[in-house]
Specification:
Helices cover about 15% and strands about 45% of the residues. It is built from five helices and 25 strands.
């Protein structure tokens, strides 16, 4: 059995030699500073809480900022803490009361503390870098000796944007600084070298493209380390999905390109064929998809259609694959003065 050194009562539990009643007395259980400053990014609207920029509703951020600065008696165990009152004094100042449920020894009790949360504009690291046109790498997308078509520019940009958005979900410092349309293709400025490296590998695999990298020394850090910017070049092949190509003296429609190779359909018998990555340099473009001719369908029969040749308006019978969806017009190509249906 213990006794309280202040009131002399016998008790089973003491804290600092005092019974629970004497220990609690007029003791302050929770306290808040006179004011708490809450930074918000004027550009993206995120709040700086727990040493990081986070996306939150304003009221929730104000509550979290107050709770983060709450001092609690070290002998107390927190059971629950929440804002019991948030009063807007003006657009930037809020009177906040934090209520706390506590356990001190064997006693359960509550307490509250009040502060003023001041919301102040700032700029987060990501937005500061974006506004300052910060970049560490450049992704150059080119297409042989020719300019990228509008469709290919749009397609590659969409792939780049989706990739960066996906990566940015787990790393907010990853972003596209700017995109420039230049002679021959696109230049995309990126926030990190690692992003440029992984993105260039992704595109090279997607298109079976040639990839190179060129580092450039741009300065030194405060601790004397060399600083580099790296240019990653992804040179797309001339062929693209949908084109009619020549491979081993036969004509195919290219249906799929991946890091391991390609899939094609034979225009003569409509059989599938695979090409390994190491053999794809032997693929030559015969006709780009946007340059296909259109022929008006005159009649349909199983495995065959009759069309009007767009070059001389003669009637031509064309073989078609089983299950082909034939409309009023079809795509065709002329190969050695023979017309072929393009599935």
């Amino acid at each position: 059995m213990n006794f309280c050194v202040k009131c002399g009562v016998d008790c089973e539990e003491t804290i600092r030699g005092l019974c629970i009643d004497c220990f609690l007395g007029d003791r302050t259980l929770t306290a808040l500073p006179h004011h708490v400053d809450l930074e918000t990014c004027a550009s993206c609207g995120e709040f700086f809480i727990h040493d990081e920029w986070v996306e939150k509703e304003k009221i929730q951020a104000i509550e979290d900022a107050a709770i983060e600065n709450l001092d609690i008696l070290k002998e107390a165990e927190i059971l629950e803490v929440t804002a019991t009152s948030i009063i807007e004094q003006d657009t930037s100042n809020f009177a906040v009361t934090i209520g706390t449920s506590l356990k001190v020894g064997t006693v359960y009790t509550t307490d509250s503390a009040t502060t003023s949360v001041r919301v102040k504009n700032s700029v987060c690291k990501k937005c500061s870098r974006q506004l300052g046109s910060y970049y560490e790498s450049i992704l150059q997308i080119r297409n042989g000796e020719k300019d990228l078509s509008y469709e290919l520019k749009d397609e590659t940009l969409s792939k780049v944007q989706r990739y960066v958005n996906y990566r940015a979900k787990t790393d907010k410092q990853l972003f596209i600084t700017k995109t420039e349309i230049v002679v021959g293709g696109l230049d995309i400025y990126l926030s990190s070298i690692q992003l440029g490296r992984s993105l260039s590998k992704f595109l090279a695999d997607e298109y079976c493209a040639v990839r190179t990298e060129s580092p450039k020394l741009v300065g030194q850090t405060d601790d004397g380390q060399d600083m580099y910017r790296v240019t990653y070049l992804v040179r797309l092949p001339d062929y693209h999905v949908g084109d009619v190509v020549i491979f081993e003296k036969r004509y195919y429609k290219l249906t799929r390109v991946a890091n391991v190779g390609a899939k094609m359909i034979d225009l003569l018998h409509f059989g599938d064929r695979s090409v390994k990555r190491q053999d794809m340099s032997n693929i030559k473009v015969y006709r780009k998809e946007q340059d296909f001719d259109e022929a008006t369908v005159v009649s349909r029969m199983p495995g065959e259609i009759q069309v009007m040749n767009p070059s001389n308006y003669s009637m031509v019978d064309l073989r078609i694959p089983a299950g082909a969806n034939i409309g009023e017009v079809v795509h065709v190509v002329d190969i050695n003065e023979v017309l072929y249906y393009v599935p």
